[in-house]
Amino acid sequence: MTKNFLTLFDITRDELEALFVLTDKLKREPRVQPLTGKTVAMIFQKPSLRTRVSFEVGITQLGGHPVVLSQEGIGIGTRESAADVARLLSRYCDGIVARLFGHVVLTELAAFASVPVINALTDVSHPCQVLADLYTLRQHDKLRPGIKVAFIGDGNNMVHSWLEAASIYPLEFVLAAPDGYHPDPRVMNQALKTGVSRISIVKDPSEAAAGADVLYTDVWTSMGQEAESEKRRKNFAGYQVTMTLLKAAKPDCVVMHCLPAHRGEEITGEVLESARSIVFDEAENRLHVQKAVLAQLLRGGKNASGENAVPSVAEKVRL
User: Fold this and answer.
1) Which pLDDT belongs to residue 152?
2) What's the confidence (pLDDT) of residue 224?
3) Residue (of 279, 282, 260) closest to 271 by Cα position
4) Residue 159 sits in a domain of what CATH number?
5) 253-264, pLDDT tens digit by residue?
6) pLDDT, average across residues 62-80
7) Contact predicate 297/116, CB 8 Å
8) Phi, psi at 163, each rounded to 5°
9) Same structural domain for residues 91 and 154?
10) Domain total for the chain?
């Protein structure tokens, strides 16, 4: 794993699996505190519920101290350059978690920070969410080579991170999206070049759902796209995850959504609340997986028992 965690392109399959072993350890032993004495800056340009709470609680549980910074407070990219913010926070803090609009701001932070930078979401990528998704599938004994994930909806940052995941874990990923809403070709091509997974884009949601192990969806209108909401509702009509669509998938198919969900738009309330939904498991696992990422990148110091902090994944974690 590199110094920073900006996308899933940053890790290997072995590191992914070792990270999940570390997540298991931290779930079993919540008193392990490898971040004792460490401070983590958390920058939020975008509104947040799951991301803020999961990171803030996770840092605290690991023994660290979170410092939450709003866009209004620091004006990253406007009042002050990302480069200067990165250099300043590196002198105060041991790590930076950033939830931003532009991915370029994240890469600038990472380029100038001397401490680890973690991507808590940008318009390009949401790697922490897909880490939690993969871990949740593993928890439900679904994560196996060749698993078919059908994503119904917009080719947004969530799709990008699933494409990143498809570059390190062998799966079949099918996106059903209307024309004009496909993922960034650069991300698509980078994933395809690895040859690790089968990746395709179709128009018909039923075609994507056929034989799927996982049906995944996200909102049709993401933050910053509110002016397009009416147009998007029209263009995505027919791309709703319904019980009828679920019947096209495997009998044991599970339903996932990164939340927040707009019941009656991208997914029906019936599906979201059904026994096939593991939506709130994946939401909970944001906390556990992110704790592992933090422990991996900010390792060092002592835990609450005075033992050495959780070792590096690269050192073949034995927990």
Assistant:
1) 98
2) 79
3) 279
4) 3.40.50.1370
5) 999 999 999 999
6) 95
7) yes
8) -65, -40
9) no
10) 2
Token pair, residue 214, equals 């996982």
Say which residue, 30 or 241, is predicted with more confidence. Answer: 241
**pLDDT(280) > 60:** yes
User: pLDDT category, 223, cuts 50, 70, 90?
Assistant: confident
Sequence letter at residue 190: Q
Catalytic positions are 99, 126, 129, 218, 258, 286
Q: Whole-model pTM?
A: 0.93
- Domain membership of residue 319 (yes or no) is no
Are 292 and 267 in a shared domain?
no
Cross-strand bridge partners of residue 5 = 118
The letter for the amino acid at 292 is: A
